[in-house]
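Entry for the shared binder. Reason: the reviewer on the internal report wants the predicted structure included alongside the sequence.
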Amino acid sequence: MEVFSLEIESSYLRDNPWKDPYRRKVVVLKAGEVDQAPGLLYLSGYFSTSLAQLNVDPISENMKERIERLVRNGSIRGVYLILPDTFTIFGGNQYLDSKIAGLYESFIMRELIPEMRDRFQISDFAVMGKSSGGYGALQLGSKYDFKGLAVHSPDVYFEYAYLPLFPKVIQTLRRVGNPRQYVEFYWSQQDRKKRDLMDALMIVGLSAFYSPGEDLMLPFDLETGKIDDEVWNHWLSLDPVRFLPERKDKLRGKHIYIDVGTKDEFHLQYGTRMVHKMLSSWDIQHLYEEFQGGHMNTSFRYDISLAYIINSINRNGQI
């Protein structure tokens, strides 16, 4: 396996309002038989970066070790795995263009993918992710010409995924003031992995990506907790169960893998089932699996999705 560490200077991220880095590191793993091997873009979940897939894991495997094993035992032939750093001051990314957080969809599709295509002579691309990364895989994969989508436990059906968190974070946010002040407060803390602090930052971050306009607007009133219908409806318009019907023709002919745990702590199994039912009703072929487990520590599922997506594309695009 060859490992390439690159840096892309992004014109789309240069003027992002929160001054997040516009020079972004990208690691590419070139494994196995790479003649006509697909490029697989991996999008991380919230509070992480794709580069974390290379971290040492003394109990399991990191992504480099996993792919080496899958190539060695013949489960996959070859792949270019693309790991971009898209971490933001909000703690994560939803892989959309945002006037508040930055133009990350444009960075990925107009800069990163063309750079990977030209540098490594990749003709076909697939996109993969879990949680927020799974949302990104659905969002980008249903909008652009990716040959495959590997979607793990995606953010979907926002009523179940996000609404239960709203009343939990209101008290934390009110102690600080407005959402902008909270971002500064969060990064001033030493115990940043406290669950209540992380939940509040995530809701602020989701607001940065989902709320309309150039102001950082929460989908609820911070004093009373009342849902702001205008802002919340804009969030809902970005929910896969809402936008996928408009994109179903873009999904036809793609290789699609979706899975979710039956005990997902964010209740994502319900929205994921809705996506599965929609795809089935449209006669869009896909592999859907539910497994006994929750939202965390599910990277063992990548054995299945990697083999399915990579091998499907390698079979000359035949489903």
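Summary line for the report: DSSP finds eleven helices and ten strands in the chain.
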